[in-house]
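Annotated sample (chain length 161).
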Amino acid sequence: MTDSRDPAFRHLIASQINAASSALRRSQALRLRREFDLSEVEWRTILLIEFMQPVRLRDVAAESAADKAQISRIVTALVKRGLIVRQEYASDARSAFLSLSTSGKDLAARLSQLAAQYEAELRTELGQAGAELLLRTLAVVRDKAMHSALAEERLGATARR
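Output written by the structure step:
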């Protein structure tokens, strides 16, 4: 039974998904900070560079859907920590290729292992059928949200004319 004193949004599907997402991100962020002294964005940046290397900064920013300036600051910090190597691009002094250093590759392997371990824990908790149902359900929610966002963007563009 629901508590009549609860705010109306608390029982909405989108609110529950947001709450679950926030809890997952917080748990992950705390563990990344404790075990690796990394933020979630640094973790994602390392794994993106590992996947895409050698890669330009602008491509990492585009793939992560993050602000290029923010990714630039993160990459600079990770270069200083010796996790990323920046190799100048011969024909363009403003551009460089990024790749992981040896210690960056070792860290990426440990981060991937941690992610796989956490995924296994969630899948064990949910069971095979539950995990498959959750993934299908989230795909439906994601598609609906994307369609709604596109419709809102069109409405916003129309209103600005």
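Annotation: The chain has a mean pLDDT of 89.
Annotation: The two ends are 48 Å apart (CA to CA).
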